[in-house]
Design goal:
The complex is a heterodimer of chains A (318) and B (355). With 318 residues, chain A is an alpha/beta fold. Helix content of chain A is 36%, strand content 25%. Chain A has a 6-stranded mixed β-sheet with strand order 6-7-8-3-9-10, with helices on both faces. Chain A has a 4-stranded antiparallel β-sheet with strand order 2-1-4-5, with helices on one face. Chain A has a 4-stranded antiparallel β-sheet with strand order 12-13-11-14. Chain B is elongated, with a radius of gyration of 26 Å. Chain B is built from 14 helices and 5 strands. The chains are: A alpha/beta (318), B alpha/beta (355).
Chain lengths: 318, 355
């Protein structure tokens, strides 16, 4: 007896080993302006990937092209191994998208909206499951229009995950959440990763990207400026670490001759030393410094925010 | 199918939770019926102006004439057949009773001209006349009738009847429901919900189907509430074929839904769509004869009346529900509504923007 493999299963086999997203040479023009300029990215299965960039950098356009909401002028997009233009309907079943849509069906309750969206997919989680996942128990019978900003935000993430997508797009998922709810949402995203799902997110919060993302891409003026793991990007762009001595009494000339120190900056009463090798500098510093000079000493390594500032000349939240 | 079912349910829930849409769909037309009913429906305390024509004198005939003149419910005018029937047609008489010369069997033929589509005539006046006649019969010859009453139907337009207005108000309600039916979709487009939905497997055709079917369900609900209210409160007699009536309700609702989508295609936002829709519906209200007979409309406006689809819906509903005198044959009403449906469908499919 020959067992026939259902189409969906065959699709899955055909595409399971391909990257979650493969884009190459993507170009999108709005009139004279190049919104996306030759962007290429490959995002592996199971990865949490962050796209970071100032407003107007091309983040939204990129997401819109990958999710099929907009057509690129040039380049190719493959999602879960399928072509976005040709297989859009099949892709839709398997991805989840959270857009920055303020109100969805204002006169339905949280439960009803989840139930409605579940009905759009061949296979979807129950409203109960999503309510528990996003901690929406208290607002399940509330009308959407009566939800707080944070609750609406969580609902919109729940809607993006209702079909248990292999690939979820989350556009600023934690905007408007209080710190507690944000941490809870990080848990949800990490759970997606544990289950082998891929998450593509944008965020305004650097600590969020550093904590959540396996890799990030920094985009500005439509061009990818850097791609890599957050730690790796910081190492690449900031070879040096700052050692801050708030109450130092040693003369700058002495400090400047310490091993591996490249620069000494005044900072209030104290100084900031930039070292390419912290252990070496510290060992030497402990030899020459008195107890008072070492009071309050701390080591400050660069953050993703610093990388971002360096690459784009702007802070992310500007 | 699952998506359609859930979306239909969601649309109905949203509709029922929106107080203003509920008001305009149910309360507003109901208020119309109550107001018009209070003004024009008050002929339950009967005082009927009737015409009496005595073509010959006979004991039984004279007794009947005397009995009629004695009745407090009747205001009797005497005259000849032609003038009295003419006055009946104008609406100045509710009935004309013609008493003839006794026949060979000795019984007096009595002809009653009236419009049976006037409910109060059907329900009160004619039975009252029968009563008077049988009283006369009993007095003269209990075994064989002395007066033979025969009914002659004459189509008379009743200007002041709630019966005339009820189907018109139903037509008005269906038009409003239909014309504004695309507003939810335009709002969804504006608030970017359509965008959000377009990244799910939900099809646009399913979305439109769910919206349209929701409107049809509300339309049928409206019809039940309006006709039911008119029947219970003002004793409007809905005598027509229910299936045919339902058919015209659905056809009318569909036509105006299509018109709503065609109009929505011309507007960018829900806010600009609403005035456009009002601009279309108000002239239609007054050019369709749903509030007054078409004869009262000045001549130069006639061509407009013949174009407006509400004219045909109102006429069809009047004919089918209360058996009113037709302005047009029913097949012409059907064709006119279908033509509008097709034209609006084509326009809306060409012009409605999803993004």
């Amino acid at each position: 007896m020959v067992a026939t493999i259902p189409d969906t299963e065959r699709d899955w086999e055909r595409t399971a080993l391909s990257p979650a997203i493969e884009i190459a040479g993507l170009v999108k023009r709005y009139g004279e302006k190049l919104a996306v300029n030759n962007v290429s990215l490959t995002i592996a299965r199971g990865e949490v990937f962050g796209l970071l960039g100032p407003n107007g950098a091309g983040k939204t356009t990129t997401i819109e092209i990958i999710t099929g909401l907009r057509q690129a002028d040039a380049g190719s997009v493959r999602v879960l191994g399928m072509d976005i233009a040709r297989d859009r309907e099949a892709i839709k079943e398997r991805i989840g998208v959270q857009l920055q849509t303020p109100a969805l069906f204002p006169l339905l309750t949280v439960y009803e909206v989840l139930d409605l969206f579940a009905g759009f997919f061949r296979d979807a989680a129950s409203p109960e499951e999503m309510i528990a996942l996003l901690g929406l128990e208290e607002s399940r019978q509330k009308l959407v229009k009566h939800l707080s900003g944070g609750q609406q935000q969580r609902l919109s993430v729940a809607l993006a995950l209702v079909n248990r997508p292999e690939l979820a797009f989350l556009d600023e998922p934690t905007t408007g959440l209080d710190p507690q709810a944000r941490v809870a949402l990080w848990d949800v995203i990490e759970r997606q990763r544990r289950e082998g799902r891929t998450v593509f997110l944008t965020t305004h919060y650097m600590e969020e990207a550093e904590r959540l993302c396996d890799r990030v891409a920094i985009i500005d003026h439509g061009v990818i400026q850097a791609v890599g793991a957050p730690r790796e990007l910081i190492r690449q762009h900031f070879a040096e670490t700052a050692i801050v001595l708030p109450h130092v009494t040693l003369p700058h000339t002495t400090l400047r001759t310490l091993p591996a120190v490249s620069e000494v900056e005044c900072e209030g009463e104290g100084v900031r030393l930039y070292s390419s090798n912290v252990p070496e500098t510290m060992a030497a510093l402990l030899q020459v410094a008195d107890a008072r000079s070492l009071q309050g000493l701390y080591v400050s390594s660069a953050t993703l925010e610093d990388v971002f500032l360096k690459l784009t000349g702007r802070r992310l939240r500007d | 199918m699952k998506a359609f079912r859930k979306l239909l349910r969601a649309n109905l829930l949203s509709f029922m939770r929106d107080r203003s849409s509920l008001f305009f769909s149910f309360a507003f037309p109901a208020i119309f019926i109550v107001i018009f009913g209070a003004i024009f429906g008050g002929d339950q305390t009967p005082s009927y102006t009737i015409g009496l024509v005595q073509q010959a004198h006979s004991p039984a005939g004279d007794a009947l004439a005397a009995a009629l003149m004695e009745m407090k419910a009747f205001k009797v005018h005497q005259g000849d057949v032609t003038t009295e029937v003419e006055k009946l047609k104008k609406g100045d008489r509710r009935a004309v009773v013609v008493i003839g010369a006794p026949g060979t069997d000795g019984s007096v033929p009595v002809q009653v001209y009236a419009d049976p589509s006037q409910t109060s005539t059907q329900q009160i006046l004619l039975p009252l006349l029968q009563q008077v006649a049988s009283a006369v019969n009993q007095r003269f010859a209990p075994s064989a009738p002395a007066v033979q009453m025969e009914m002659r139907s004459i189509g008379v337009r009743d200007l002041r009847s709630i019966d005339y207005l009820t189907p018109g108000i139903l037509a008005m309600a269906l038009m409003q429901l239909g014309i504004f039916s695309a507003v939810p979709l335009v709002t969804l487009r504006e608030t970017k919900v359509l965008r959000r939905l377009s990244v799910t497997p939900l099809r646009r055709s399913t979305m439109v189907a769910a919206q349209v079917v929701q409107r049809l369900i509300v339309a049928v609900g409206q019809a039940v509430v309006l006709l039911g209210g008119a029947v219970l409160l003002f004793h409007v007699k809905v005598t027509g074929n229910v299936a045919l009536l339902a058919g015209f309700i659905v056809l009318g609702a569909l036509t105006f839904v299509a018109m709503g989508y065609a109009l929505a295609g011309q507007a960018r936002t829900a806010e600009s769509a609403q005035p456009l829709m009002s601009l279309v519906q108000f002239p239609m209200l007054f050019l369709s004869g749903i509030f007054f007979p078409l004869e009262l409309v000045p001549g130069p406006l006639r061509p407009l009346i013949d174009i407006v689809p509400l004219t045909y819906l109102g006429d069809a509903l009047r004919q089918v529900s209360v058996k009113a005198t037709p302005d047009f044959p029913l097949w012409l009403d059907t064709i006119a509504l279908c033509a509008w449906l097709v034209v609006c469908l084509v326009i809306s499919m060409r012009t409605f923007r999803w993004e």
